[in-house]
Design a protein that fits this description.
The chain has about 140 residues and is of the alpha+beta class. It contains four helices and four strands.
């Protein structure tokens, strides 16, 4: 009988974990979308300031501004962006343990009709912030 009483508790706890993970994904997506809006507008310095500490440890503000400008400017204006996937994890290769959401978007730009954007958000000082960003043409062999 004790076993039967523990089953509902297990499902309750499992349901709570799924709800928390779902909320984390939603909040991470919202933070990432806000961050991408800064990048889309060419506000690279502000996007660096809004990024996670681990992002800032990898490159200086000036390096980010120069790199983002060199990579994104040739694409032209953003035409559309659609979320393709969002994966929650507590571990990522080469990163400290924590809470992460890896988001993949399909995007269209004025001069690049099909691109894949990957942004990694992480819980950083109590807020979801972008810790990594990568963009490539959708026709790359690694697609």
């Amino acid at each position: 009988m004790k076993f039967l009483k523990s089953i509902p508790l297990f499902f309750l706890l499992a349901g709570t974990a799924v709800a928390e993970e779902s909320e984390a994904v939603q909040l991470a997506e919202e933070a990432t979308q806000s961050w991408l809006t800064l990048v889309d507008a060419g506000n690279y310095a502000e996007s660096w300031r809004e990024a996670a500490a681990i992002f800032k440890q990898q490159l200086t503000e000036r390096e980010w501004v120069d790199t983002a400008s060199a990579v994104r400017t040739p694409f032209g204006s953003l035409a559309s962006r659609q979320l393709q996937s969002a994966e929650y994890s507590t571990t990522l290769p080469g990163a400290p343990e924590g809470e992460y959401v890896v988001l993949t978007f399909e995007a269209e730009y004025e001069h690049m009709p099909s691109a894949i954007e990957t942004a990694t958000a992480m819980m950083d000082e109590g807020e979801w912030r972008v810790a990594g960003y990568y963009i490539r043409p959708a026709t790359d062999p690694g697609s």
